[in-house]
Design goal:
Layout lengths: L2 E5 L2 E2 L2 E2 L1 H13 L1 E7 L3 H10 L4 E5 L2 H4 L4 H14 L3 E5 L2 H14 L3 E10 L5 E7 L4 E6 L6 E4 L14 E4 L32 E5 L8 H10 L2 E4 L1 H5 L20 E5 L5 H4 L7 E6 L12 E4 L2 H16 L1
Parallel strand pairs: 1-4, 1-6, 4-5, 5-11, 6-10, 7-10, 12-13, 12-14, 14-15, 15-16
Antiparallel strand pairs: 2-3, 7-8, 8-9
Helix pairs in contact: 4-5, 6-9
Bound molecules: flavin-adenine dinucleotide.
Length: 319
């Protein structure tokens, strides 16, 4: 069976949930091989085996980790050359997509970004599904050249455990001079918010201009649900919430099980980043707000009254 390469998304060996999703998708196409770059592999080993990695390629070389994405693309290109994989799967983060683009050029392969489903193609190959034009269309795609390179949106693939043992191979890859032209000179860990990461959270509660700058009710409701907090561009531009929390066309794209939009009108650019969420709920005091066109559940009301009541109710039920 052909290998399917999966780039492991981790922080010092703590593997993100997106990797389990990619390994699950990889098992549909062939034999999952994890590509682990960086330090902390001992912490990652069991998780990778638990989600079905049959093989792990390890590389812990500062020449790769101390530079931006270019060396990672060269490592993957080397592995594509060596293994001719059935596909290469990466997370649909900004970094994952940049690596994927570089890899596609190096290997002269077709590239699909932001896939929401990955399946074997009818006549072989890989069939992917994407949600495009702000979620108004679903397109099915098949890569026609090279090893299909696919970035997959977090929370799109239901994770399945497939415990086994992975064989391990430590690799070295000679890097080109161009790959090491942008070096990381400092790293500072972001202060932990205690909330899940926005792009991979199962629940996201977002606030917009309707908060008037007071994100307290949004954060409290999010915390009652164990959710991440997002924001519209209007809220971010006003300086009410960090730029990294912006959901939408020019922010991050999220696809959680539940998305709650509070005080957000539902502009097309906001929809572009959240319309593939499984269940959408809006709280807005204007019954005519466009967000109500796409919701599964809508509450016409003042978020400063609705969210605290919902928070109290969730806490009471958690008991
Ligand atoms: P508004 O549109 O002002 O809506 C506020 C809503 O809050 C209203 O519906 C109002 O009824 C409701 N409200 C007010 N008070 C309350 C209350 N007390 N309780 C309940 N509801 C209340 N936007 C994004 O979000 N993400 C993007 O990535 C993005 N990219 C863009 C890219 C481009 C090129 C452009 C041109 C625009 C982009 N925008 C983006 C901006 C987008 O067009 C909208 O301007 C923005 O999404 C509006 O944010 P909002 O819904 O918070 O504010």
């Amino acid at each position: 069976m052909a290998e399917v390469l999966v780039l492991v998304d981790h922080v010092d060996g703590t593997v993100r949930k997106t990797t389990a999703e990619l390994l699950t998708a990889a098992a549909r196409l062939g034999e999952p091989s994890a590509v682990f770059i960086g330090t902390g592999f001992e912490s990652a080993r069991d998780t990778l085996a638990q989600y079905g990695a049959a093989k792990v390629y390890r590389i812990d070389d500062p020449a790769v980790t101390d530079h931006l994405v270019a060396p990672t693309a060269e490592v993957l290109a080397h592995l594509v050359d060596q293994t001719s994989p059935a596909a290469v799967l990466l997370p649909s983060s900004a970094e994952g997509k940049e690596i994927a683009g570089r890899l596609a050029i190096k290997t002269e392969s077709g590239l699909v970004t932001d896939a929401t489903d990955v399946q074997p193609g009818d006549g072989g190959g890989v069939r992917t599904v994407q949600s495009v034009f702000a979620g108004n269309y679903t397109v099915t795609t098949a890569v026609t050249k090279g090893s299909p390179i696919v970035t997959v949106k977090p929370n799109s693939i239901p994770v399945q455990e497939a415990p086994g043992e992975a064989t391990e191979e430590t690799i070295t890859v000679p890097l080109s001079e161009q790959a090491t032209t942008a070096r990381i000179t400092d790293r500072k860990e972001k202060a932990a918010s205690g909330r899940p990461q926005l792009t991979e959270a199962a629940i996201v509660v977002s606030g917009g201009r309707g908060t008037g700058g007071d994100f307290g009710p949004v954060e409290q409701f999010a915390d009652s649900l164990g959710a991440a907090v997002g924001a519209s561009r209007a809220a971010v531009d006003a300086g009410w919430y960090p730029h990294a929390s912006q959901v939408g066309q020019t922010g991050v794209s999220v696809s959680p099980q539940l998305y709650v939009a509070a005080g957000i009108s539902g502009a097309i650019q906001h929809r572009a980043g959240m319309q593939t969420s499984k269940t959408i709920v809006a709280v807005n005091k204007d019954a005519e707000a466009p967000i109500f066109e796409l919701v599964d559940f809508g509450v016409v009301g003042d978020l400063f009254q609705v969210l605290p009541q919902a928070t109290t109710e969730v806490q009471a039920r958690k008991g």
